[in-house]
Structure formats: C-alpha cells, structure tokens
Amino acid sequence: MCSCPRSEPCAREVETTDIVIVPSVLLCPEGWQKRRYPGLVDWLRTMYDRGAVLCSACSGIFLLAETGLFDGKDATVHFGYARTFATAYPAVRIHPERVLIISGLREELVSSGASMTWHDLVLYLIARYAGATAAQEVARFFALQWHQDGLAPYIVFEGKRDHGDSDIQSAQKWLDQNYSVANPVEEMIKRSRLAERTFKRRFTTATGLTPIAYVQRLRIEDAKRRLERTDAPIEEISWQVGYEDPAFFRRLFKRTTGLAPGAYRKRFRIPDFARL
Q1: Which residues on neighbouring strands pair with residue 21, listed in sequence order?
Q2: Is 131 helix (H, G, I), strand (E, B) or coil?
Q3: Which of 21, 106, 124, 215 is deepest in the core (most CB within 10 A)?
C-alpha cells in the first residue's frame, strides 16, 4: 500500500470483523499524505465501533493514526519513520524502540515496530485468540522469533540537523570526526566562542540531546560498527571510541542499546561467509 494518490482500497463490503491489520505503508518522497483515503479511515472507525481490534505493522500506524483513535495513547512505528510520524501526529505517544504496544481500555489498539516485528504481532494475535501453546508451535515451525530485547540495538543514531542553528550545525559537523577526542564538549564550546551555558542550551534545543549525551550516542554507534566488523577486544574498542574505563563503557553501551557489548557482538557480528 502506498500513500501516493490512487484508487481507494475497497473495504466497505466488510460490515464487521474481529481484527483489522494495516500492513506496511510505502511513504511517498514528500512524506505521508493525509486525507488520501477518507472512506477507508471512516471504515476503520466503524470497525472499531463494532468491536474490532485495530493492528498496524511497521508504518501502517500512519493510516490508523488518521482515525484519531490513537490520540493520547502509546504506539510504535518503524524507527526510520519516527520523526515523520511525530510531526504528522504529535498527539500520539510514539516509542520506536519498542517492538509491540497494546493500547486502549480493551487492548483494542495494537502496533508493531520495525519491519520484521510483524512476527511479534502475528505471534501475539495467535496467543491472544488461540493460546500461547499454538503461538509457540507456529514460531517453532516457521522459525519465527519474539524480539524480546526490543529494537534499541537496531536503531542507528542520526543526530537532528534540520534545526537551522548554524553554530550548532558547525559543532555537529566537527563532532562527526572528533567525538573520540578527550573532552569533546569543552572543545566544542571553545570552538563555538559561545558562553558555556548558551552553547549547552542551544545545543540541547536544536538536537534534543545534551552535548554529552550526543557525544555518547556517536561513540556508541562507532562501537557498534567495530563490534560487528572486527575481532578487537571490547577493552580496545572502548579506548578507540573515547573511553579509558571499559567498565563505564560496558554500562553505557548496555543502557543505550539494551545489550552488553559481548551480547551485541554475538547477535550482530557479520558471519565469516558474508565477509569480503
């Protein structure tokens, strides 16, 4: 399904259903286009009023959010679409790091996150309507898995840059190549020629992160790539990305990604047969 202009899917023949699942939506280059499918949105509200459970897979939440039923409620979306979704539907509390979110007084609003979390959505619905044993049997037969560690390990950090503050953009550009140096925040402030409080306030306003938190995200992102692609010891990687204390690095890495460095390497390491 694409949000570009086209003939509206015909769902009006269905007068009642227990479950509606909106699959991934392919957004147009200009982003999500609202009010493309008014009849379908009305039909979704009607199904909801008649007792249906509304579910979305990945970016399908864009269409469901247009019903207004998710306003003031929690939902998830593919992390690659998180900013676009938050701009389009600010009334929805979005959590792109979460795999599956069940909202509503009768648990009637279900959203799953990044692409392959449709596994979790399907297994959840099987467990809900046919029992946990059936869900486990399906998971085993089709080699499906629950993403029990969440999606934080998969998210690639990209600092916000469309904020229009040229001084902060300059600092970000410098950080891209120098985040591993000692005392990078102090160096940024000195280079900016702004007062420390002014710089920190403007940086946080522009990027949504404090300067030190931004540095930490860049360092952890570098560490993730090194864990995936090299055999370097974790202590060496800690030093390479800017941390002299491996214990602190391990705690920060797990807090950021949800996995310890060793567990991350085991899960995401590129297999030998795939290396060039």
Answers
A1: 55
A2: coil
A3: 215
Is it true that domain 19-154 has CATH number 3.10.450.50? no
Q: Which two tokens stand for residue 122?
A: 């399907």
74 in helix, strand or coil?
A: strand
Alpha helices in 34-131, H assignment, sequence order = 38-49, 61-65, 82-88, 118-130
C-alpha closest to that of 43 among 4, 6, 15? 15
Using the CB atoms, write b or e for 227-260: b if 16+ within 10 Å.
beeeeeebeebbbebbbeebeebbebbeebbbbe
The CATH fold assigned to 166-274 is Arc Repressor Mutant, subunit A (1.10.10)
Contact (Cβ atoms closer than 8 angstroms) between residue 78 and residue 96: yes
pLDDT in tens, 78-134: 998 998 999 999 999 999 999 999 999 999 999 999 878 899 999 999 999 999 999
| Spatial strand order in the sheet of 100-103 | 19-22, 53-56, 109-112, 100-103
d(CA 153, CA 254): 9
